[in-house]
Amino acid sequence: MSVDAKPSPDVNQILDPSKALVPATVQLNEERVARGFLPKIRRVAARVPFAAEVLSVWWCARDPATPTAAKGMMMAALAYFVLPTDVIPDILPALGMTDDAAVIAAVIAIVGKNLRPRHKEAAKAFLAKLSKD
User: Fold this and answer.
1) Which residue from 21, 30, 34, 132 has the fewest beta carbons nearer than 10 Å?
2) Cβ distance 53 to 106 under 8 Å?
3) Contact 56, 36 (CB under 8 A)
4) CB 57 within 8 A of CB 107
5) pLDDT (tens digit, 9 = 90+) per residue, 73-112?
6) Taking the model in full, what pTM does it have?
7) Residue 68, φ and ψ in degrees, nearest 5
8) What is the 3-state secondary structure (H, E, C) of 75-125?
């Protein structure tokens, strides 16, 4: 790196975890997911190998028994899945959904203990219904 080059920004300032569960941020993520999740999952379910996991997270985030903090993180991950702009564009073959898969895997690792068998069963049933349509 040259003397004139800008130093990399501090990731902890950009991705401030304290803002992840701010009510306004959670509400924005919930609105994005409400508008875009079902249309996108219907479009991409056949080619996304982690569709069942995404749907499980979606059902868990909508479950009144899921803790609020877990819901906030799940909605953030689902909002990233829905957003048309990604770190890796979804239109790229083989690579396009890898960033989405990583985000979903990370949220499952963090709050996956809240995923219940009923969420996974609902996801499987939804995917079975989609495959029939």
Assistant:
1) 132
2) no
3) no
4) yes
5) 999 999 989 887 766 666 665 677 888 888 999 999 999 9
6) 0.77
7) -55, -45
8) HHHHHHHHCCCCCCCCCCCCCCCHHHHHHHHHHHHHHHHHCCHHHHHHHHH
For 2-30, the pLDDT digits (tens) are 445 444 444 344 445 566 678 888 888 89
- Cα 3 to Cα 65: distance, rounded to the nearest angstrom: 54
Residues contacting 83, CB < 8 A, separation 6+: 32, 36
Closest to 101 in 3D by CA, of 88, 120, 85: 88
> CA 36 → CA 13, 14, 76, distances in Å?
28, 25, 13
Structure tokens at 130: 């989609």
